[in-house]
Amino acid sequence: PHPSTHRTSPRNAMTAVAPTLRTPFLAAPRGARALSRGSARAPARSRHRGHVAVAADATASGSSALDTLMGAKIIAPDGGGDDAVRSSVQTYYGETLQTSDDLKTSACCTPYDLPKRIRGILSNVPDEVKAKYYGCGSPTPQGIDGLRVLDLGSGSGRDCYVAAALVGESGRVTGVDMTDAQLDVAKKHAESYCVETLGYDSPNVEFKKGTIEDLAAAGVEDESVDLIISNCVVNLSPDKPAVLSEAWRVLSSGGEFYFSDVYCDRRLPDEIRSHPVLLGECLGGAMYVEDFKRLCVGTGFADPRVLEGHEIEVRDEELKALLGEARFYSLTYRLFKLPGRLESICEDYGQYVVYKGTIDGHPNAYSLDDHHRIEKNKPFLVCGNTASMLGETWLGKHFDVHGDRSVHYGAFDCGGPPGAMPRGDG
């Protein structure tokens, strides 16, 4: 039988929920429709997944009119600089919010069911750590045993505690945060959790004070981590180009930045981007999703992939009136550091992959993103980019990649737009 086709489409997770379409995000399970080479082609506009071919100049961390326009630079409350932004965020998370019950939107909440193993790990995480959790997604993949993990903006340490269990005693987890109140909670339980709860000889998790725009100052060396995670933090940064540049620097080749964050369907006006409550609630610093993709490509993270997401609910009537028609979404992105291997559009080299069914929590199928769900033992046609993501990263031991890039067959023949991706344990 023909391998299943790589179903690419320009309708990424944001366009799937854009106001013009009026369709609910991830509304219904998607079938495993298989297409052969002889299947009818999708319309021409659907063939290239909408990858950003023009790289924005995102590597410079200094202020610029373009960065400010794109929302890559936050406008500080009261007209201050980057330090004023950080001070506002520290006050909101260190003093204003006592628990997640104090939030005014659903931005810093995870609304859907977590995988069974993650739920089991969380049941053993100290209550104080979980009470001060303000994440918007689940940016901790399974199957990461032995990896070196870095959490950007680790807060109370919840995701680090989960990662400490997932990587095992041979792995290593480092959390970086700038808020003392949050770091105090994270550090307080780390040793007892690792030694007494997980049964390790010594802790495999540590927490460092620092900013995510300058990881070198926190002691994070070049190419020293395999996986970066982050949960609703990048939007809080006053300098997002610096965050992505630092992520690229510290990742080893083949490493991944796997994170959940908040994005908007438009560029936001100054009065929203400088509003202290909206900044703290992760809406004021939300980038227009297309600008974010441009920033990724400009940094080196070509072909950013969306795994899952949901629309954010604004509960406060005053904030709702201020935001008007702007709509916000929590999306989980996957950015791979594969220098020279990821192209601006999907290219066909006649490759296919076979999933071995060996990733924890995914015995029957694995979802790379919102349009690649790959069943165990079933050949699955892929473009060159996807072949590299599955074969040249930490995922490589779980997939057999057949073929190389020695022969080019043109642009990858894409299927129709994806529907919702089923969640669960695969």
Describe this protein's structure.
By secondary structure, this protein is α/β, with parallel strands linked by helices. The protein contains twelve helices and 13 strands. The protein has helices at about 65-70, 80-95, 115-120, 125-130, 160-165, 180-195, 240-250, 270-275, 275-280, 290-300, 315-325, 385-390; strands spanning about 150, 170-175, 205-210, 225-230, 250-265, 285-290, 305-310, 330-335, 350-355, 365-370, 370-375, 380, 400. Strands 1, 2, 3, 4, 5, 6, 7 and 8 form an eight-stranded mixed sheet that branches. α6 links the parallel β2 and β3. The two termini are about 25 Å apart. The relative contact order is 0.19. The model is unreliable at about 5-65 and about 415-425 (pLDDT under 50).
Runs in which pLDDT lies below 50 for 5 or more consecutive residues are 6-63, 416-424
Shape: globular
Our count of helices gives: 12
What value does the Rg take, in angstroms?
Answer: 21 Å
* Biggest sheet statistics: 8 strands, mixed
Mean pLDDT: 80
**Tally of DSSP β-strands:** 13
Ends: how far apart?
A: 23 Å
Helix content: 25-40%
Give the oligomer, counting copies of the same chain as homo and different chains as hetero: single chain
How does the helix and strand content classify structurally? alpha/beta
- Helix-strand pattern: HHHHEHEHEEHEHHEHEHEEEEEHE
Strand content: 15-25%
